[in-house]
Amino acid sequence: MRPNRREILRITAASSLVQWLSGNATADGRIIYLADMHFHLFFGGTYTPEKYPLGLDMAGGQATLVAWSLVSDLLWMGPTADRHRQKKTPNPGEVYAWFQREMARIKRHVADQNLKIVINSADVDNAVHGDPHVVLATEGTYFLDDDLSRLAAAYEQGIRHLQLVHYLKNSVGDYQTEQPAYGGLTEFGKRVIVECNRLGILIDLAHCTEEAVTQALAITKAPMIWSHSSIAKTGKPHWSMVLWKARQLTLPTARKIAQKGGVVGLWALRPDVGPSAVSYAERLAEMADQLGEDHVAIGTDSHGMDNEQMLANYADVRKVIEYWQKAGMKETRIRKIAIENYARVLKEAFRLRQPA
Fold this sequence. Notes:
The protein is α/β, with parallel strands linked by helices and about 350 residues long. The chain has helices spanning about 5-25, 55-60, 95-110, 120-130, 150-155, 185-200, 210-220, 245, 250-260, 270-275, 275-290, 315-325, 330-350; strands at about 35-40, 65-70, 75-80, 85, 115, 135-140, 160-165, 200-205, 225, 265, 295-300. The chain has one domain (about 30-350): TIM Barrel, CATH 3.20.20. Strands 1, 2, 5, 6, 7 and 8 form a six-stranded parallel β-sheet that branches. It has a three-stranded parallel β-sheet with strand order 9-10-11. It has a two-stranded antiparallel sheet with strand order 3-4. Helix 6 (about 185-200) links the parallel strand 7 (about 160-165) and strand 8. The radius of gyration is 19 Å and the shape is globular. The termini are far apart.
């Protein structure tokens, strides 16, 4: 009997794993695995799980800790000439229904790929040591509909990484690409942070305004991350700028995140970072010099940037590690940036979990 598609994928992934173990170890026989703090696949359009099976992609680059971010406002936003903007307003409960449907589809694909979902710190440790895991994440909190109890429900569904805002008007706080309305976080947004701490969910500040970042850092009991974008080389990002410039961080704000124990991720956006894995490696190494090697990580925004991404898959991300190795970067530094920093902040968020 001929193997079905699922079996073919499993066989291929197993073969890729053998290649990892035989050809990519360091001098002491250990492998440097990869984490990605921000990754996308969509169940429609170009970048679907059918066309880009996650297990094969992860295996091709030795990625073992990948945050698959569900774009919670996807159906209500759209591109304009220079940015993404809200195109319609969801009805009450509409985003929550979408969130539940898409989360079920994500879990099915993860299972089909013979991957595991991060639930606790032991899972994170296993991923660091080579057992491929997916972190269930959400981009935006629109599914809450001002109902804080839905955070606990999301936790039960497996969410361990939560980005506060994205491209829709919301009741949590201001975001970078539209004129601020709240002066940072709302009172509800502050309650979301406290509840995430209580539940043991890692908070992602990406897309927040600098005022919202400062306010969030003053509240949180756990380190936070900025999963994807970059540090502006000059000037201060403003909501009226072209999207990628509006989405950057100033160095002082990035340092605030680091000083609280957090991690800042670099996206693989060609107009910002450059054309190749080498330019990505050099920019991320520069960020490590600016913030400290314990406070930067990979956050590709894979498949979320249309044709502007210079790292097409995790085999390309692997080239970043290889470049650092050839350049003589210390292995301890590489491991931190490649996977250990993201693993650390996940576990520190998990430790705060309190019983209901």
